[in-house]
Amino acid sequence: MGSIPSHTDVFVHSGVVSRVEGHSVTVTLDQNVHCESCRAKGACGVSDGAAKQIQIDDPTKTYTRDQPVRVVLKKGLGHKAVAWAYVFPFLLMTGTLILGSALFEEWLAGVLSLAVLVPYFTGVYALKGYFRKTFKASLQSL
Questions:
Q1: Where in the chain is the domain with CATH 2.40.50?
Q2: 10 Å Cβ neighbour count for 3?
Q3: Of the candidates 2, 5, 90, the residue with the CA atom closest to the CA atom of residue 47
């Protein structure tokens, strides 16, 4: 089936349950047939050929392996995800490069601007529990 917009504030993508561990369900998303006409397919990770998997915690229902489901995502979360993954690191790196260029030699400023990403993404990884709650997807049985 692929991805289909259902309402103005959510996006629905079909998939199949590939693993169930307690209340955690891993869903393999179907190949997206709508990617060909999308303007953002070059920036989106769903449009490439590899199978995408998403892990969802759903304590309310039980799912079985190979069960077809729909993954429901809020559209507004995309802007937050882009900000955390691309905008904030870019601003941090650019700010460090500008400040470092004023204080140090160019090569050292460049190294510092790249090195500042290590603690940033380490912090993002440390906050993965927060991000799982913020970027929560839900499941619907077919």
A1: 3-75+136-141
A2: 22
A3: 2
Strands 24-29 and 10-21: antiparallel
Average pLDDT, the chain: 83
User: What is the Cα 120 distance to its own chain's centre?
Assistant: 17
- Asked if 113 contacts 99 with a C-beta cutoff of 8 angstroms, the reply is no
For residue 142, give Cα distances in angstroms to 51, 66, 71: 20, 12, 10
| Domain 3-75+136-141 part of CATH 3.80.10 | no
**In this predicted model, what pLDDT tens digit does every residue of 15-44 receive, in sequence order?**
899 998 888 889 988 776 556 656 656 656
pTM value is 0.67
Collapsing DSSP to helix, strand or coil, 49 comes out as coil
> Average pLDDT in the 57-80 region?
84
CA atoms within 13 A on the CB side of 82: 9
Chain-centroid distance of CA 46 in Å reads: 10
Alpha helices per DSSP H over the chain: 77-82, 88-103, 106-115, 117-126, 128-134
105 to each of 67, 89, 95, 113, 142, how far by Cα in Å?
A: 58, 22, 15, 12, 60
